[in-house]
Amino acid sequence: MPKPLSIRPLTKDAFAPFGQVIEADPARMKFINGGNTERFHALAEAEVTGEGARVILNIFRGQPRAFPYALTMMERHPFGSQSFSPLNGRPYLVVVSEDDEGKPGEPQVFLARGDQGVNYRRNVWHHPLMTIGAVSDFLVVDRDGPGNNLEEFFYPEPFIISEPAL
Ligand SMILES: NC(=O)N[C@@H](O)C(=O)O
Ligand code: NI
Known about the structure:
With 166 residues, this protein is mostly beta strands. The chain has one domain (3-161): Ureidoglycolate hydrolase (Jelly Rolls), CATH 2.60.120. It contains 1 helix and 17 strands. Strands 2, 9, 12, 14 and 15 form a 5-stranded mixed β-sheet that branches. It has a 5-stranded antiparallel β-sheet with strand order 3-13-8-16-6, with no helix packed on it. The longest helix has 4 residues, at 12-15. The chain is globular, with a radius of gyration of 16 Å. The two termini are 27 Å apart. The protein binds (2S)-(carbamoylamino)(hydroxy)ethanoic acid (UGC) and nickel (II) ion (NI). The site of nickel (II) ion has 5 residues, from loops. This is Ureidoglycolate lyase. InterPro entries: RmlC_Cupin_sf, UAH_cupin, Ureidogly_lyase, Ureidogly_lyase_bac, Ureidoglycolate_lyase_dom_sf. Catalyzes the catabolism of the allantoin degradation intermediate (S)-ureidoglycolate, generating urea and glyoxylate. Involved in the utilization of allantoin as nitrogen source. It catalyses: (S)-ureidoglycolate = urea + glyoxylate. Pathway: Nitrogen metabolism; (S)-allantoin degradation.
Protein backbone atom coordinates (compact mmCIF):
# COMPACT_ATOMS: atom_id res chain seq x y z
CA MET A 1 0.00 0.00 0.00
CA PRO A 2 1.63 3.32 -1.03
CA LYS A 3 2.56 5.35 2.05
CA PRO A 4 1.38 8.99 2.25
CA LEU A 5 4.09 11.53 3.11
CA SER A 6 3.51 14.59 5.30
CA ILE A 7 4.75 18.03 4.22
CA ARG A 8 6.66 20.29 6.61
CA PRO A 9 7.66 23.93 6.18
CA LEU A 10 11.28 24.32 5.02
CA THR A 11 13.49 25.61 7.82
CA LYS A 12 17.27 25.92 8.13
CA ASP A 13 17.37 23.59 11.13
CA ALA A 14 15.12 20.88 9.70
CA PHE A 15 17.08 20.89 6.43
CA ALA A 16 20.52 21.00 8.08
CA PRO A 17 21.26 17.24 7.64
CA PHE A 18 20.83 17.65 3.87
CA GLY A 19 22.33 21.05 3.10
CA GLN A 20 21.57 24.73 3.45
CA VAL A 21 18.53 26.97 2.97
CA ILE A 22 19.37 30.00 0.81
CA GLU A 23 17.35 32.86 2.28
CA ALA A 24 17.87 36.43 3.51
CA ASP A 25 19.00 35.47 7.00
CA PRO A 26 19.55 38.66 9.05
CA ALA A 27 22.34 36.89 10.94
CA ARG A 28 24.31 36.64 7.67
CA MET A 29 23.71 40.23 6.52
CA LYS A 30 26.29 42.97 6.14
CA PHE A 31 25.89 46.28 4.39
CA ILE A 32 28.00 46.92 1.28
CA ASN A 33 28.11 49.50 -1.53
CA GLY A 34 28.11 52.39 0.92
CA GLY A 35 25.00 51.09 2.66
CA ASN A 36 22.96 50.80 -0.53
CA THR A 37 23.01 47.01 -0.54
CA GLU A 38 22.49 44.26 2.04
CA ARG A 39 24.81 41.29 1.40
CA PHE A 40 23.62 38.02 2.92
CA HIS A 41 27.02 36.43 2.96
CA ALA A 42 28.10 32.83 2.31
CA LEU A 43 24.70 31.19 2.78
CA ALA A 44 25.96 27.99 1.15
CA GLU A 45 28.95 26.60 -0.68
CA ALA A 46 29.05 24.97 -4.10
CA GLU A 47 31.19 21.84 -3.94
CA VAL A 48 32.57 20.03 -6.97
CA THR A 49 35.03 17.12 -6.99
CA GLY A 50 37.08 15.24 -9.60
CA GLU A 51 39.68 16.21 -12.16
CA GLY A 52 38.31 18.78 -14.62
CA ALA A 53 35.17 19.51 -12.60
CA ARG A 54 33.73 23.02 -12.68
CA VAL A 55 30.88 24.92 -11.04
CA ILE A 56 28.20 25.96 -13.52
CA LEU A 57 25.05 28.09 -13.32
CA ASN A 58 21.91 26.92 -15.12
CA ILE A 59 18.21 27.73 -15.36
CA PHE A 60 15.79 24.84 -14.85
CA ARG A 61 12.25 25.49 -16.13
CA GLY A 62 10.03 23.00 -14.28
CA GLN A 63 6.54 21.97 -15.35
CA PRO A 64 4.13 21.81 -12.38
CA ARG A 65 3.74 18.36 -10.84
CA ALA A 66 0.31 16.74 -10.77
CA PHE A 67 -1.05 15.74 -7.37
CA PRO A 68 -1.53 13.38 -5.69
CA TYR A 69 2.01 12.57 -6.80
CA ALA A 70 3.40 9.04 -6.70
CA LEU A 71 7.05 9.36 -5.71
CA THR A 72 8.88 6.34 -7.04
CA MET A 73 12.53 7.40 -7.08
CA MET A 74 15.29 9.52 -5.62
CA GLU A 75 18.64 10.61 -7.03
CA ARG A 76 21.95 11.97 -5.83
CA HIS A 77 25.04 13.58 -7.32
CA PRO A 78 28.22 11.94 -6.01
CA PHE A 79 30.60 14.53 -7.43
CA GLY A 80 28.95 17.80 -6.54
CA SER A 81 26.41 19.85 -4.66
CA GLN A 82 23.28 21.22 -6.37
CA SER A 83 21.34 24.34 -5.45
CA PHE A 84 17.90 25.56 -6.57
CA SER A 85 16.81 29.20 -6.18
CA PRO A 86 13.32 30.15 -7.42
CA LEU A 87 13.24 32.99 -9.96
CA ASN A 88 9.46 33.51 -10.10
CA GLY A 89 8.79 33.74 -6.37
CA ARG A 90 6.62 30.63 -6.37
CA PRO A 91 6.59 27.97 -3.65
CA TYR A 92 7.86 24.49 -4.52
CA LEU A 93 8.52 21.15 -2.89
CA VAL A 94 11.88 19.88 -1.69
CA VAL A 95 12.18 16.14 -1.11
CA VAL A 96 15.25 14.62 0.52
CA SER A 97 16.17 11.52 2.49
CA GLU A 98 18.91 10.16 4.68
CA ASP A 99 21.23 7.53 3.21
CA ASP A 100 20.49 4.00 4.40
CA GLU A 101 23.50 1.86 3.45
CA GLY A 102 23.69 3.23 -0.07
CA LYS A 103 19.93 3.53 -0.59
CA PRO A 104 17.61 6.45 0.22
CA GLY A 105 15.57 6.14 3.41
CA GLU A 106 11.97 7.36 3.67
CA PRO A 107 11.55 10.64 1.76
CA GLN A 108 11.09 13.82 3.79
CA VAL A 109 8.99 16.50 2.09
CA PHE A 110 9.39 20.23 2.70
CA LEU A 111 7.31 23.10 1.34
CA ALA A 112 9.70 25.91 0.33
CA ARG A 113 8.55 29.52 0.10
CA GLY A 114 9.20 31.43 -3.10
CA ASP A 115 11.98 33.38 -1.35
CA GLN A 116 13.85 30.29 -0.18
CA GLY A 117 16.41 28.35 -2.15
CA VAL A 118 18.11 25.09 -1.17
CA ASN A 119 21.59 23.72 -1.62
CA TYR A 120 21.82 19.92 -1.59
CA ARG A 121 25.20 18.87 -0.23
CA ARG A 122 27.19 16.55 -2.46
CA ASN A 123 25.76 13.01 -2.51
CA VAL A 124 22.52 13.87 -0.70
CA TRP A 125 19.47 11.91 -1.83
CA HIS A 126 16.77 14.16 -3.30
CA HIS A 127 13.89 14.04 -5.75
CA PRO A 128 14.20 15.98 -9.01
CA LEU A 129 12.70 19.46 -9.12
CA MET A 130 9.08 19.60 -7.97
CA THR A 131 7.30 22.81 -8.97
CA ILE A 132 3.73 23.59 -7.90
CA GLY A 133 0.84 25.12 -9.83
CA ALA A 134 2.67 26.81 -12.72
CA VAL A 135 5.79 26.53 -14.85
CA SER A 136 8.59 27.84 -12.63
CA ASP A 137 12.19 28.83 -13.32
CA PHE A 138 15.06 28.15 -10.93
CA LEU A 139 18.67 29.25 -10.92
CA VAL A 140 20.59 26.01 -10.42
CA VAL A 141 24.25 25.95 -9.38
CA ASP A 142 25.81 22.52 -9.77
CA ARG A 143 28.69 20.59 -11.34
CA ASP A 144 29.84 19.92 -14.85
CA GLY A 145 32.72 17.63 -15.70
CA PRO A 146 33.79 14.08 -16.42
CA GLY A 147 32.19 11.07 -14.77
CA ASN A 148 28.60 10.09 -14.10
CA ASN A 149 27.27 12.57 -11.57
CA LEU A 150 23.79 11.07 -11.35
CA GLU A 151 22.87 8.05 -9.24
CA GLU A 152 19.19 7.03 -9.17
CA PHE A 153 17.29 4.66 -6.89
CA PHE A 154 13.77 3.34 -7.50
CA TYR A 155 11.68 2.35 -4.47
CA PRO A 156 9.90 -1.02 -4.49
CA GLU A 157 6.68 0.80 -3.48
CA PRO A 158 5.73 4.41 -4.29
CA PHE A 159 5.11 7.08 -1.68
CA ILE A 160 2.20 9.52 -2.12
CA ILE A 161 2.46 13.30 -1.84
CA SER A 162 -0.91 15.09 -1.65
CA GLU A 163 -1.55 18.52 -3.10
CA PRO A 164 0.22 20.98 -0.79
CA ALA A 165 -1.95 23.59 0.94
CA LEU A 166 -0.45 26.96 -0.08
N1 LIG B 1 19.24 15.75 -13.60
C1 LIG B 1 19.16 17.04 -13.39
O1 LIG B 1 19.91 17.84 -13.94
N2 LIG B 1 18.18 17.49 -12.49
C2 LIG B 1 18.16 16.88 -11.22
O2 LIG B 1 19.50 16.78 -10.75
C3 LIG B 1 17.33 17.62 -10.23
O3 LIG B 1 17.67 17.54 -9.01
O4 LIG B 1 16.31 18.23 -10.65
NI1 NI C 1 19.52 16.67 -8.74
